[in-house]
Each structure stands twice: as C-alpha cells, then as structure tokens.
C-alpha cells in the first residue's frame, strides 16, 4: 500500500497539500509539519486490506490534535455536490489542511474546482496518450499540472479526449453491446467506448439449433458496426491488460485508453489447446463442435450422414458457457436419428468431466427420461484430453471413486467436442482477476471487490451464475443501475439474484426451460411446471428469444429483464 511519506506530498500552497493513501504512522508527521486538519477523500474498503478505515484514522488524528473530515469520493465520481462539500470544508476547517485519497488526484480535483482556471494552453509535450485521471469532466481536465509550491495554482493533467472516456466497455459481445445500449438509454450524454477487435457479432445461443438443422447459420451473425449503439465509440482493437490504479486499459497495438468507470465483459475463451490434437482435426474426420460458428453446419452434416457406428458427445470441466449445450447437441442428434429409424444402429455416449448430468437437481429426472429414450450411455468424470482424427480415437482421463485417474481410448465415427474454457489471458493475468482468472466482483452488485469504479458482467465475471445470454440480459440492468449510482457517489442498491436460463432442446419441437438462480433456486418466468418439455418453450427458443436479442437486448430495451432484487 502506498503511504504518504513527506517527500510524496504535493504542497499546492501554504495552506493546502495532498497525497495518496496515508497510514497511521503518517499522522504524527503530518501534525509535526504544521497541518491542523485532514480530509479523507478515499472511500473505506476501496484499497487493499491494509487500508485503515476513516474511523481509525479519525481517532489517530484527534489524538494528535488534528481535525478530521471524511468526504468519500468514488473514482469517477467527482461531481458538483462533492466539490461544493469539499469547498465548504476548506472554509470551516483550521488551516493548513492536508487531504488524501488513493493517489491524490481526487483531492487535487476537488481543490482545483475552487481555484481560478489556468488560461495558458498546455504545451504539446505535456499531453499523454491517455488521461491518467480519476474523475471530473473534460472541462476540468484541459490543463497541464504545474510543479507544487507556494502560490502555485493547481491544474489538472491534460488528456487527448480521443483516448479518454466516461465509461470504457471491454468486449462487444452480448453483455458489452447490451450494457452500452442500456446506459445510453438512461443517460445519452455519457461518453462510452467499446473495445472489441472482431468485425462480426454473433447470436451464439442459436448455434446448437444450427447443428441440429433447426436454424439458419446466416441468421446468427451481423456486422459489428450494425450493432454498436448510436452514441458509443467503437475502438476496433484487442485489449491487452489493465492498469486499474491509473484507470487505463492497455491495447495490443500499444495504445492506452483512459476511463472514469470500466465495465469488463470480454466473454470466455475457448481453450482448444488443452485437448491434444484437436485443432488439427476440427472440421474433418467426423470431429465437430457447435461452439464455433463455422463448425455448427458441419455438425448437422455429420448427423445426417451417420447411419451406424459410434457417436461421442463431450463436456469439459466447469466453467463453460451454457452448461446445457453439450447435451443439447446429443438430444437433437438423437431425435433426428430416431425419426430416421437409425438410432438403434448408433452407439451414443455422453462423456462429461462432471459428476452429474445437470447442476440443478429438479431437471435431472426429465433429462434422464430422454437419455433413456435415446438409449445413450453416460460416462461421468470422463474428460477428453486428446483426439487422433486420422485414427478416429478419442482419449479420456477417467477418475474413479477413489480419485485415481486412468486414460481410456474410445473409437468414434462422430465426435462432438465442447472445448475447455477459461478467462481471457489479458484478464486472467491482470490485477482485476480472482484466483480462477475471472473479474472479481461482488456477486450481488457485480461491482469489483477492490476497484469500486469497475463492474463486470457476462461470462468473464466471477459471479457463480450460469454463463448464459439470459444471465447477461438480467445482469445488464444490475450493472447499469449500480454503475450510475456509484457515479453519483451512492451505494449500489439493485441486487442480482443469480438468474440464468438454459433452454434444453431435448427434441426438435420441445424444450425444457431451466431457469434458476444462486444455489440452484428455481426462478421460472411462467406459471408452468418448468421440468416439463413443451412446444411453447421451443417457440420461445427458436422464434421469440432471437428476436428479443436483436431488437431489445442489444437496443437498450429491457423487456423481461428487470431485476426483482432490491436491497
């Protein structure tokens, strides 16, 4: 933790100085230097565990004969109300005054709001590639910072505003486009940038249907430019890292983008490299996956061509996006083979690295009914680790009841692979990540646990909900409301209940609509038995949900998306 050693103080004039986070040991030094008052602008709990609370600091300050005031300002939240309150403190507290926050920037901005503006335009060489700033507005930023000293007017580090935004969204998938649209619906004046390298946007929930011959592949993709919300700026580049202490996103092309608030939603990475030989045989030798846009049609081709032999369907260790998708591929394939009267000639096996068929117990019995109907064999604790496409052999690591792992080779004629999945490397290796590599958030508010101007949603966040588009649809409301509250210096008030949904396509024409929240609590949207496969749910899956996706979720229209959780 940074502490305010006297050499790091910024003495802006004889009556005012700022610094980064102070420790208890700094207070006697501040008193000995002649200061009479301390203002704390850093919210409690914003930094690491060693950050002393304002109550503790106040006791130490009063013991040293100092006045102490607590005026917390979240990063990105230096608004008019806070500036006025700060100026009022300067009028009432004994001078000289010492103020601090995480780095000193918020305290400087609050003080600068009451000083005359610097009229001399900044020199070009003082402008950085991105604004390293914690709050305020473009008007307060458009100056250069002068060295400290008696009588010097404090002014603000300059920015190129092409590289500095109110909000930066990392990821242009379902969560990224959806949250941007919803924020702009609420507050159109926000300057929001979306960092996304791809020029295409995909409706991935329909890829299983494409692989089952029930949906047109072309209807699952649109140009990224067509879905970027009006009013947002698209930065077509890959994110490479985060510098949260400086409010910067690093890009792979060397640029840095500055933010007041950050939303992390880059999705989850398909870790094909964890299966030896798979990348050399995908799309041929009977090896396919509905988890890739270009391969879903190949799945349907293999299903139609297979008349006899062995079909393997795999599921890797969690977490994965749409945990029901691996078995949905099996159900739709079996339904087709059953209708073609060839199912009894095909040996179907579902190999899953998990120990259960589905994570919510209420849905296991109806799913087992379909497993039995299709005469599919289940292989639990069986993880695919190698594929030899030329020999048509799949190798699995199988764990027994004693935890012993053995390798078993299985021949196949068709192999549908669900790849292992992981957080993107630039997130996993960043200060934002939890131990699993995902963006560490409070699962109820979706606010980062250590950097309070950062939120996350979708597949990349650490919340233990099902990683589905339906979850992102609900999370959008949570993040939009809580981020704007934080922007005003308020506590988050909208609570996420962990909602996720998995429409389990158990046959062509019927779906079991599994909707649930944290702890597997059932959260059905309709007054119907959710464990019963229905044609109505199929219509929702094939017709309504895609329409809602393109015309509501990505447009900031929150139909059927409002949260029921309020703190």
Which key terms come to mind for this protein?
567 residues, alpha/beta, Protein-Tyrosine Phosphatase, Chain A, FAD/NAD(P)-binding domain, 3 domains, seven-stranded mixed beta sheet, five-stranded mixed beta sheet, elongated, FAD/NAD-bd_sf
Average pLDDT, all residues: 88
CATH topology of the largest domain: FAD/NAD(P)-binding domain
Number of domain modules? 3
Shape: elongated
| Counted beta strands | 28
Q: Decide which structural class fits the backbone.
A: alpha/beta
Total of DSSP H or I helical runs spanning 4+ residues: 15
* CATH homologous superfamily title of the largest domain: FAD/NAD(P)-binding domain
- The radius of gyration computed from the alpha-carbon positions, rounded to a whole number of angstroms, is 28 Å
User: Oligomeric form of this entry?
Assistant: single chain
Summarize the biggest pleated sheet.
7 strands, mixed
**Which band does the percent of strand residues land in?**
15-25%
Uncertain parts: 117-161
CATH architecture of the largest domain: 3-Layer(bba) Sandwich
Share of helix among residues?
Answer: 25-40%
- The first-level CATH class of the largest domain is given as Alpha Beta
If you had to describe this structure to a student in words, what would you say it looks like?
With 567 residues, the chain is an alpha/beta fold. It folds into three domains: 6-159, Protein tyrosine phosphatase superfamily (Protein-Tyrosine Phosphatase, Chain A); 163-268 and 423-566, FAD/NAD(P)-binding domain, CATH 3.50.50; 272-421, FAD/NAD(P)-binding domain. The chain has 15 helices and 28 strands. The strands form eight sheets. Strands 6, 7, 10, 11, 12, 13 and 24 form a seven-stranded mixed beta sheet that branches. Strands 1-2-5-3-4 form a five-stranded mixed beta sheet, sandwiched between helices. Helix 6 (174-186) runs parallel beside helix 14 (469-487). The radius of gyration is 28 Å and the shape is elongated. It starts with 9 loop residues before the first strand and ends with a strand.
